[in-house]
Amino acid sequence: MTTAARIEAPALLGASRLRMNFPMTVRRGTKAGLVIQMGSNVDLGILTGTSIRTYLNGSSTAVDNFAASTLLDLTATGSNKAVLEFIVADDINQIEVRTAGLLNASVSIDIFAAYGTVTPLPVELTAFLGKATSSGVVLTWNTASERNNDRFVVERADDQSDAFRAIGQVKGAGNSIQPQQYQFVDANPLALGYYRLRQVDADGKEEFSPIVAVKSALKAAELAAYPSPAVETLTVTGAAGASFGVFNQFGQKLLEAKMTLEQRQQLDVRSLPNGVYFLKDLSTGQSTRFVKTASVR
């Protein structure tokens, strides 16, 4: 094998690192590793200051972090090359060598190969973007290839950690080795919406895309409540997915609900005492007033 890369750490203080990308995802539970050489023989003292770390999609948080000396297998390739092999704890697509210099001696490591067990994904997603327009939020995504792909389900949440809900779907290409382009328009977007794709295979297996956040360019729907006076049911209209609360004249919140995607919600107000109340959008602060009464003459 020929040297593919070299990493050098300075003498005394300092450290160097080299991160390499795999062309596909290395799945959890499979083997990955490196073939390296330091001079004519592997020096365990040098390896003490060297670590092997793995990452997914350029994250700053390592999936795995091993001391190189704990992975050493001199018998795999001979005395002058070493295999550093490990079991992957979670999906990765990057592997990094990080090494610190020794006292009065710099460290040079030749890397011959980085390897892992890669499994082609059913759908190779190359882009997923969202853009606010006058007609709604336009979502576009591209694939480089597809295998057994039945459909993409478009999901939305009003908070990145909140439960995502399906708002539509787009038919997949099935099997394709050609680039494909897709588009979906959310005509009733939230003021700030979080979107993701749930890709579904023909056999029901699912994969999720990264999340994109989009601020809507549409004017938020006006908050309204009727009838007033209300006896049993209050109809509330406003921005889809918005959370709103009912407050009394002392500012106490008595009821809370979330607007449906149809921008309309029925609220049972029979438990409220007769009086004047305020309906408030909890995210924008927009409010409106209504009256609750026992009966309407």
Structural notes for this entry:
By secondary structure, the chain is an all-beta fold. Helix content is 2%, strand content 56%. It has 1 helix and 23 strands. Strands 10, 11, 12, 13, 14, 15 and 16 form a 7-stranded antiparallel sheet that branches. The protein has a 5-stranded antiparallel sheet with strand order 1-9-3-7-6, with no helix packed on it. The chain has a 4-stranded antiparallel sheet with strand order 2-8-4-5. The chain is elongated, with a radius of gyration of 29 Å. 24% of the residues are buried.
Features:
297 residues, mainly beta, five-stranded antiparallel sheet, 1 helix, T9SS type A sorting domain-containing protein
Task: Describe the secondary structure blueprint for this structure.
Elements: E1 5-9, E2 15-26, E3 31-37, H1 44-48, E4 50-55, E5 64-67, E6 72-73, E7 82-87, E8 92-100, E9 107-116, E10 123-133, E11 136-157, E12 165-176, E13 180-186, E14 192-201, E15 206-208, E16 212-215, E17 224-226, E18 233-237, E19 243-247, E20 253-258, E21 264-268, E22 275-281, E23 287-292
Antiparallel strand pairs: 1-9, 2-8, 3-7, 3-9, 4-5, 4-8, 6-7, 10-11, 11-12, 11-13, 11-14, 14-15, 14-16, 17-18, 18-21, 19-20, 19-22, 22-23
